[in-house]
From TrEMBL:
The chain crosses the membrane at residues 82-105, 117-140, 152-173, 207-228, 234-255, 309-329, 399-416, 422-444, 456-476, 488-507. Belongs to the major facilitator superfamily. The keyword S-adenosyl-L-methionine does not apply. It comes from Columbina picui. Residues 534-545 have a biased composition (Polar residues). This is Synaptic vesicle 2-related protein. CDD domains: MFS_SVOP. It is a multi-pass membrane protein.
Amino acid sequence: NSLFCILRVVKFRRTGESSRSDEDVISGEHEIQIEGVRTELEPVELEDGAAVPKEFANPTDDTFMVEDAVEAIGFGKFQWKLSVITGLAWASNYAMEMMILSILAPQLHCEWRLPSWQVALLTSVVFVGMMSSSTLWGNISDQYGRKTGLKISVLWTLYYGILSGFAPVYSWILVLRGLVGFGIGGVPQSVTLYAEFLPMKARAKCILLIEVFWAIGTVFEVLLAVLVMPTLGWRWLLILSALPLLLFAVLCFWLPESARYDVLSGNQEKAIATLKRIATENGAPMPLGKLIISRQEDRGKMRDLFTPHFRWTTLLLWFIWFSNAFSYYGLVLLTTEFFQAGDVCSISSRRKEVQAKCSLTCEYLTEEDYTDLLWTTLSEFPGVLVTLWIIDRIGRKKTMALSFIVFSFCSLLLFLCVGRNVLTVLLFIARAFISGGFQAAYVYTPEVYPTATRALGLGTCSGMARVGALITPFIAQVMLESSVYLTLVVYSGCCLLAAVASCFLPIETKGRGLQESSHREWGQEMVGKGSHSPGVTRSNSGSQE
């Protein structure tokens, strides 16, 4: 006897895009005729631990992947909550702690009578900590979960951030700020967790809007410094700046573990529970069928970033992230130098005057200085808006390339002896686009790597960015003393090469779902072959997907 089942379902493409045919939209239903009796078969395990999706073993079973469920559930209340919590991590654990560097350094320079090289070391040691830990946090997140790595890094930063306020001497604060940097290196994993819960159409926009929280964090830090520094001093500023991390640490207990990670680690029940929770909060139905198991024991290994499929992507991304941080932080340093000199052509004469002064000469930050810091921060908003508008139109690769080209062009225009107003416009345009390019890289990197190596891939890229941040003071400050034009050529040339590297990236992730594992491509091929399996027919035309 034949059993005919008529089911109302949503058709899924295994690339992660969910869609309905035109006939589905009109009729509101999709008919599948299945001949034979449904049987429940357990997934077949491969030798390397990966599971064969059930539709390959039994084409009559209804199955779905995490990507399918995320697309079907869509963007809703759960994602709004997650956006706020991720933004809080970005503002408190990243933006505020980084903004402290520009406030703490001149204060200690005057209070402890530090020479210039020791003041510079206060900034460098934070980047050393971030660089040394980024890969480690990525490995922890791939091995033990995104939520686990994020919680440990936040608590680490909170603990040593508060201890920094009690540092008795320079050597102590140097060590403690380095340990704070070690914890900050885990913050990018919040983007990994965030991206894995976002449907494809909302992913780029949501990750880009995290930059708004960066701006909020830096503005809050400056306002806090205005209130605290004149009365309580820098020690209380460090302690109070760490307290928002306590709020995020408490909210971390609300965060679920990534369903993609749970599936890859074999926790099918936990992944289903997480997806049901999201569906309930969003008021959306779960997909029909069973969740495909795609277990992979060997996760978070550095060698996976250099397989033939990802080798060039990894190397090009490392250079792109290096160039982003090298240019972004270099521009921040150059902005101060150019504004103090008045214009580019006055740098040389000003340097001669400065060399005649004692290296211990210092000036406390004034209200005007804090105002300049606020304006510099607000200049990044246009970059976010432009990137937000173009990234889903021209793609991730072209967006990054365009950002680098505009930055390079503005750098070359600084060769002209322009006035203060034109100088300000050029610097703001350059910073807007280089910050937008940085956010485009944050969108592209989690999308291009599969779940098994996503956190490690983002972590290593973040580590390469810190290398660029470490090197850039020697260009923007030391080389600037010798030649302004050579300094500008270095930054312009680096960004031109990064633009070329962006164009040569082998994978464009626009319109593509997040890849579950390295076995995904094999699965896609099998789905295509299974489309002609006997016993399965559709009432409307179309391939079996």
